[in-house]
Structures are given as C-alpha cells and as structure tokens.
Amino acid sequence: MQRAVPRLTGLLALLGLLGGLLLGCSAGTATAPGASSTSAGPSAAAAGSSAAPNALGTAPNAGGTALDRPASCPAPSPSTPGASQSRLPLRSLCALPPEAAQVWRTIETGGRLTYSRDGIVFNNAERLLPAHPRGYYHEYTVPTPGSRDRGARRLVTGQGHEVYYTGDHYASFFVVDPAASATN
C-alpha cells in the first residue's frame, strides 16, 4: 500500500498537467493590446486554479500574456529569431521561471553549467522545432527546485540565435525573447 501512494500522487499530477493543457488549448487565448497573436497564452480564467504545472513547468499563469506577465516584464518582440519560422507561442525571458534566465545568462557569458549533459546536441526527435541538420540545436537544463534529478525543463538554442523553452520535457515549446527581460 505504501508503494501505491507515490504512484497515485504521480498519476494525479500527470492528470492535472494534461487537464491544464487541454483546458488551455480549448479555452482560447488573450492578447495584450498591440501584441502579436503569437505571444498569447491561456487566459487567467482558462488556466483555472489547479496547482499542477503547465507547459512552462510552473504554476498556471507564468506565460507571456499581459494577464500573467509581471508588470516589469516587457512583451516579447514578434521579430525574435525562430518566432515566425516555428509558429510556436512567444514568451519573454522574464515570463519564464527565474532559473531559465539564470541558465541563459550562464550560456551567454560562457560560464560553468551545472549538469554534464548541458550543451549536448538536441536531436528534435519530436519535430516540434523547425527542421535543421543534426547539430543545429543544443539543450541546457533549467533546474527545477525540489527535483532530485534534472527535471523536465530545458532551454534549446539554435545556430540562428533561436532560444526555445520546454517545461514538459519536449512535449511543447515556446520561443523565448531573451532581450525581453525584467526592468528595474
């Protein structure tokens, strides 16, 4: 019986995640005035009150819309590399979990990364990112607080200066505008 409790907890978390994804897909999107429709995400009402992580790998409402982006976080630019080619949702770096910004700064400055698999070739086996030859994309772990392993969150970079984020281990992606970071 004791072994069934962790399995049940994991199953419930997975069902909450899937329910949140389905709810977000069917409920429509909200777009900030003057923002591109590619920057839209689930509205606050559509996200519900579930505590299950969403595709960002965070609690609901951590996307890039005006409804759920911190006031000091600028809207992402529709001209962000990868936005038009991928047709994926667009998010500001500051709308992602704070660990994503830390990893991005480390990548940009050539600092030491935490995990031995950081920087390995991302094969795009799921084919959710634009098709390119092997070696075009590289992946980096975005730490998940409290996780005993690498967790599900990753930044994937492309040779054309694209940055993508997945909070659900490659099941979905967002294009990231790294220039859209929090203002002080």
Describe this structure in words.
This protein has a single domain, classed as Nuclear Transport Factor 2, Chain: A (Roll). It has about 180 residues and is of the alpha+beta class. The protein is about 25% helix and about 15% strand. The strands form 2 sheets. Strands 3-8-7-6-5-4 form a 6-stranded mixed sheet, with helices on one face. The chain has a two-stranded antiparallel ribbon with strand order 1-2. The protein has 4 helices and 8 strands.
Largest sheet: 6 strands, mixed
Based on Cα principal axes, name the global outline: globular
Low-confidence runs: 17-52, 59-65
Radius of gyration: 16 Å
Percent helix range: 10-25%
At the fourth level of CATH, the homologous superfamily is Microbial ribonucleases
Number of domains: 1
> SS-based structural class?
alpha+beta
Q: Which whole number gives the mean pLDDT?
A: 75
Order of helices and strands, N to C?
HEEHHEHEEEEE
Write the layout of secondary structure elements.
Elements lengths: L3 H23 L2 E2 L10 E2 L1 H4 L35 H4 L3 E3 L5 H12 L10 E3 L14 E5 L12 E5 L4 E4 L7 E4 L7
Parallel strand pairs: 3-8
Antiparallel strand pairs: 1-2, 4-5, 5-6, 6-7, 7-8
